Amino acid sequence: MRGDGGHVRGDGGHARVEGACGRGGKAGGRGGGTGGGAPRALVVAQFVNAVGDGAFYVSSALYFTRIVGLSAPQIGAGLAVAWAVGSVAGVPLGHLADRRGPRGTAVLLALATAAAVASFLVVRSFVPFLCAAVVYAAAQSGLAAARQALLAGLVGPAARTRVLARLQAVLNGGLAVGAALGGLALHAGTRTAYLSVFALDAVAFLACALVLGRLPAVAAAPGPAGGGPGLAVLRDRPYALLALLNALMLLRMPLLSLALPLWIVGRTAAPGWTVSALFVLNTGVVMLFQVRAARSVTDLATAARAVRWSGAVMCAACAVFALSGLGLGSGLGFGAGAGVAVAVLVLGAVLQVLAEMRHSAGAWQIGFALAPADRIGQYQGFYGSGVPVARTLGPLLVTTLLIGWGVPGWLLLGGVFLVAGAVTGPAVRWAEGAR
Question: What DSSP character marks residue 7?
Fold first, then answer.
C-alpha cells in the first residue's frame, strides 16, 4: 500500500514525507522559525491528502485490471516508465522551485497532480494510462522537491526534522483511514465506487494546493554567482553517494507491500490475514512513535548514527523474516507451525518499523543539512529520487532475491542494509569536508 505494491501511487517511502510550516509571522525569507497557524493547517492538509492516497492505494490496481481491462504486465510496465521519468524530473523541477519561488511552484505541481489523478477517470486503454502515469509521477517528484524547499524557507533548521516527523505520523493515520474507504470501494466492486476514490484523491490534491497557496511566500534564490552550473547537485559527488545510499536503504519500501505478502502466502505457514496485520502494525507504530523516534536526531552526527543503527536493525529484521520460512514449530502439533510463523513475522515487522522510523529521521536531517541554502529544491529533488528508484527497481530486485532465492536472498538483502547504513557516516563526513 504505502510501498510499490503494484499501485499507481506508492509513497510509502517515509523518507519522502513533504510539508511546510509557517515561520513566526515573517514571509519571504529562508530558514526562519516555526509559526503556530501554518503547521496546524499543514497537518490538516497532510491528513486530507493521505486519506485520498490511502483509498487510491488499495483500489487502483484492481480498477485498472477489472474495470479498464489492462493486464498486470501493462500496469507494471507503465508504472516502471512513469517512475523512471519521475526519478529524473525532481532535479529540474526542484531547480525551478529555487529560481521561481517554492510556494508558487508547489501550488502548480499540486494542481498538475490533481489533474493527472482526475485523468484516470477517463482512461480506457494503455497509452492514455501511460501518459497520465508519467505526468503524475513527474508532478509528484517535483512537488516533493518544491515542498521541501518551501519547508526549508519557512522552518528553521533545528525544527525541520521534528516537523517532518509530525507530518509523517499524520500521514500514516490518514493512510489508514483512506485504506478503509478504499476497502469499501473494493467491496462494492462497481465502476462508480472506484471512480469515487479517484475523485476523492484529486480533490485532496486540490485542497493541498489551496493550503500551500495560503502559506507565506518564500523568496526565490538568486542564480549561481559568476555563471556557475545551474544544476550543481549533479557535480556534487559526496551528496550523490549519500543519495545512492539512501536509495539502498529505501529498498525496505516494497518489503511490506509486495515481498512480504508473497513470502507469507508462498513460503510460510502463517495465515493470509497476517499480511493485513503487519500493515496495521507498521502504520500504527509510525503514527504513534515517529515524533519520539526523531527527537534525538538534531545534527549530522546523530543523523549518521541513526542511519547506521537503522541498517543494523534492518539486517536483523531480514534474518528474522528468513526464519519464518523454515517451518519452525511444525512438529509441535496442529496449528503450532502457523502460530510460530506469525510470532516470528511480528518480531521481524517490529524490527523493520523501528529501523524505518530511525532511517526516516536521519535521512531528513542529512538531506537538508548538506544542501546549499540557495539550491535546496534541486538538492532535495536529487536526494528524493531514491523513492521513485525504489519504486521502479525495488519490486523486481526484492522479489528476485526473496521469492526466488529464499533464505540466502533475505540474508543478502540484510547485508545491503547493513553496509549502506555503515557507509553513511563516512559519506556524511566526506560531504561535510567538501563544503
Answer: -
